[in-house]
Structures are given as structure tokens and as C-alpha cells.
Amino acid sequence: MKLGGSVITDKATYRAPRLEDLSRLAQELRAAPGPLVVVHGAGSYGHVLAKEFRLAEGRDRDARRDAAFAQVHADVRELSVLVSEALRDAGLPAITHSTYDLARLDSGRLLSFAHAPVADTLAAGFVPVLSGDGALDASRGWGILSGDVIMAELARALRPERAVFVTDVDGIYDRWPDGALLPRVGPHDHVGGGHARGHDVTGGMAGKLARAREVAKAGVEVHVVNGAVPGRLADTLAGKPTVGTVVLS
Ligand code: IP8
Q: From the CB of 204, is ligand 1 less than 6 Å away?
């Protein structure tokens, strides 16, 4: 499960959670028929400072950018606390993992990811919670790792039956903003770009679709649904037909 940062926060306002949507989505997650891993986006707990200080470009000698990198990690941890509290309030026993501790990058790409702690938490019957985060980068000092990339990595490692990307739009459109919603996207379907809304440093909807395609290639059923509309996530998890996009490999 990827809870998009645009659904659980107001992405334009620094550190502004959407607590009502978060607790409703946590309730909807109870419809998951089996073990569950929750990855959440950084939303305005990450993207505002990451954009202002160009954190995805890596480290230089500017101490203010180092401070911003450390602040983003601290802020994202706070959002993870809110997400895991909402899950526990909904009866789901959430345990948070720090993505910063598990991941290493090189030139902005994932170099290694320690999935064993996540697999162990899952096997113990808990709901692991991870997030997009800052991470150390072998050649650039540090960088930004999207939760969507973690989804692709965990799909290969854990082989879930289903992956759901919860966003603030109805799914993947053939063109944005005036195109048609695509109920299915195949590997060769061309999808027009431009879904990003200006606050996203990790690739917006184009990046999300690329990662969703990677997840589908791992043999996983992949859905993109609008988490701002009550019931769509629960219906997807229960296997009921609903508005959204299925991404095919
Ligand atoms: O919101 C981005 O993760 P995403 C992580 O899942 C940061 O793309 C810190 C901006």
C-alpha cells in the first residue's frame, strides 16, 4: 500500500497533515484481506523543504542544505508517527521503520535496501510502516528516495498479491489535465505527462506510473485509486470494481 503524500497532507503547506482523510483511509485499510505493508509519501513534510533546498541534487558545502536534509528526515518521521497512530487507532498494529536507516543510494538511485527487518515485522504479524525519506548517497553525499521506489523494491522482495497506489486523482489519464481516465494501462500504452502539481521532487505521476509498472512486472496486481473519495480504497482491497486504473505488466 502506498498512501500518497498528496492525500494525507496538504502538499503546498509545510507540515500540514490531513488527519481526517488519514484516519478514514486507515479504517478503509482494514478491508485488506491479508498481511499489509504501508508505505507513505512525504507530502508537505518532505517536498516543501526538498524543493526549496534542491535536496534531490545531493550534498555540497552548504551547511544550510545539510540542516534541511536532516530536518526533512525528522519531519518525515513525524508524519510516520501520525500514520502509524491512525493505523493503530483503526486496529492495525503498525510498527514504523526508518527508510533512512534501511536504504542507501548512488547517484540518486537505490543502491541497497535492507528488506529483512520489514519482512520480519510482517512475519511477526505486525503492519510495517515506511515512507519516502532522505537517504545517504555513495556519490552525492545524500539524496531523496521516493516511497514509490520502495514500493517497487518491496514488491520484488515480498511478492505481494496486490499493490495499491493511493493518490489524489482518480487514476492514470491519457492526457492531463483534460484527458480521459484509463481503466487499464498496459506496458506499451503511451500516457501523456504533466500530472505533477508543482510541489513534487520525486517525479509526480509519471514517476509513479514508472514505479507502478515495475511493481506489475514483479507479478503483482497493481491499482491506482483516488484516496480522497471515500470507499474506493476499501472496494479495491475487497476486490470490488471501482473507479481507478489497473496497471498491467
Ligand atoms: O513522497 C519523497 O517521497 P514520495 C521523499 O513518496 C521526500 O515521493 C523526503 C521528499
A: no
